[in-house]
Q: What sequence folds into this?
């Protein structure tokens, strides 16, 4: 199951790196079995070493890097105090989760970016926090949502580093290939037709939900824009509340969820953020409910009901009500997670209001 996609995305990454070496001006014209390179020019620069390696070595190095990133994601989510044996058991078990399986099968970069961002946000002691967020956004634009978290939590120094490092990645792209960089930032950056079928069940975003619900392949239109606006403002404000209460893992997980929901395309392998979000959910419930919540959350991403209804070739446009429930299961699970965290936060806030003095200050960012 892990290798059913033959690491096709890693092949596309290598295509970008190789094209940059051969003729950088044709970066966005190159195709691999019809698949184009869809990332910023800086991503192609990062992929040059993998393009130079023989395929077996590139596969081995990339897969090891992905698994190591998975270990770091769990370590950062569960804390440094977790015993090594338990950590390895959790990592092994998480290989059964569909977003992780898909990331490994496609040879995707998601877990690496997730680990970098979690480190950058959660490790408050390192002096240049934000740099890794900017570099991650230079490889794949979706991490830009974490700049919103830095704004809402008033982490100005980290925001400066994040914005500066991202700007540096854009500059590198223009230095390496002015033509390709201009083409990407002036037209291709908003062209979702190069990414794949938006109605496809693997796309678990608001846009895809509205497309499947209405049958309109042009997207959600004004309804989608309004939903995106509400999700961004509400989600980042909730992230701020969680951050100020000291639940930084939940804060960054909700911010990631904002990006997943609001991006026009959020393939199921982008949902590796379900790992830290799941840890956040388990932490806010007590007793036997922890086992129930953990089982339901892991079960959702292990059995992946999004693949049960008819899919491919826009068959998603004919889904019945039951198909919609199954085929949008990640979105529904995400909304349930937000409700659970919100209820827990409200209960915690009410408890503090009874215990604390009026002058008590919240933790600083």
A:
């Amino acid at each position: 199951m892990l290798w059913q996609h033959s690491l096709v995305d890693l092949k596309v990454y290598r295509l970008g790196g190789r094209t940059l070496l051969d003729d950088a001006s044709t970066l966005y014209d190159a195709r691999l079995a019809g698949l184009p390179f869809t990332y910023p020019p800086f991503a192609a620069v990062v992929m040059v070493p993998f393009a130079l390696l023989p395929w077996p070595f590139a596969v081995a190095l990339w897969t090891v890097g992905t698994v190591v990133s998975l270990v770091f994601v769990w370590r950062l989510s569960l804390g440094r105090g977790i015993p090594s044996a338990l950590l390895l058991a959790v990592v092994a078990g998480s290989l059964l989760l569909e977003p992780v399986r898909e990331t490994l099968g496609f040879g995707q970069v998601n877990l690496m970016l997730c680990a970098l961002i979690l480190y950058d946000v959660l490790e408050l002691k390192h002096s240049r926090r934000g740099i890794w967020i900017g570099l991650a956004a230079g490889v794949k634009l979706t991490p830009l949502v974490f700049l919103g978290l830095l704004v809402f939590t008033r982490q100005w120094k980290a925001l400066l580093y994040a914005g500066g490092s991202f700007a540096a990645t854009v500059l590198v792209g223009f230095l390496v290939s002015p033509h390709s960089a201009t083409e990407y930032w002036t037209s291709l950056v908003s062209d979702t037709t190069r990414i794949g079928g938006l109605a496809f069940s693997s796309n678990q975003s608001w846009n895809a939900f509205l497309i499947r619900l209405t049958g309109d392949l042009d997207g959600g239109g004004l309804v989608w824009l309004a939903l995106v606006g509400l999700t961004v403002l509400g989600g980042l404000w909730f992230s701020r509340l969680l951050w100020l209460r000291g639940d930084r893992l939940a804060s960054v997980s909700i911010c990631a969820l904002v990006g997943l929901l609001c991006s026009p395309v959020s393939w199921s392998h982008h949902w590796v953020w379900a790992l830290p979000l799941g840890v956040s959910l388990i932490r806010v419930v007590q007793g036997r409910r922890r086992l129930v919540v953990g089982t339901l959350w892991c079960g959702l991403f292990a059995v992946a009901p999004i693949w049960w209804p008819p899919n491919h070739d826009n068959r998603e446009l004919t889904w019945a009500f039951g198909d919609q429930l199954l085929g949008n299961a990640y979105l529904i699970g995400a909304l349930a997670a937000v409700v659970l965290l919100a209820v827990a936060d409200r209960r915690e806030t009410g408890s503090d209001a009874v215990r604390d003095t009026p002058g008590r200050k919240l933790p600083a960012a």
